[in-house]
Amino acid sequence: MTKRIKGAGKHGRPTYNQSAKIIAKFGGEAALAQAIGISRITAYRWGYASPYGTNGIIPGPMVDRIEKAARLHGVLLTPADWLPEKTNYEEREVV
After folding, report:
1. Which of 2, 23, 45, 76 has the most CB atoms around its CB within 10 Å?
2. How many C-beta neighbours within 10 Å does residue 1 have?
3. What predicted TM-score, i.e. pTM, was given to this entire model?
4. How many CA atoms lie within 13 Å of 77's alpha carbon, on the beta-carbon side?
5. How far apart are CA 42 and CA 30, in angstroms?
6. CB within 8 A of 5, min separation 6: which ones?
7. What are the boundaries of each domain within the chain?
8. Distance between CA 56 and CA 11 in Å, rounded?
9. d(CA 68, CA 75)
10. pLDDT tens across 38-54, in order?
11. How many Cβ atoms are within 10 Å of 61's Cβ, its own excluded?
């Protein structure tokens, strides 16, 4: 029987957690996407590993839109939220 690592699906795990922190502040992909005028799937794919996504990093052109939406919707974004940190996944095997 082949063992697989939990959470390492078709799209893999992103290296950084910047997008996860920002998305959580807005209350999820759908809320962020609606606030900045993009599709929910686009915001969701920021959390995919390359080549399917942006490896957890928010694309540069979206930063201004997110900051404006945060001010408009009362979402507090700190400079620490924008710093990409390497994610540390604990290796758990699922049989």
Report:
1. 23
2. 3
3. 0.78
4. 25
5. 10
6. 91, 92, 93, 94
7. 11-88
8. 12
9. 10
10. 999 999 999 888 888 88
11. 7
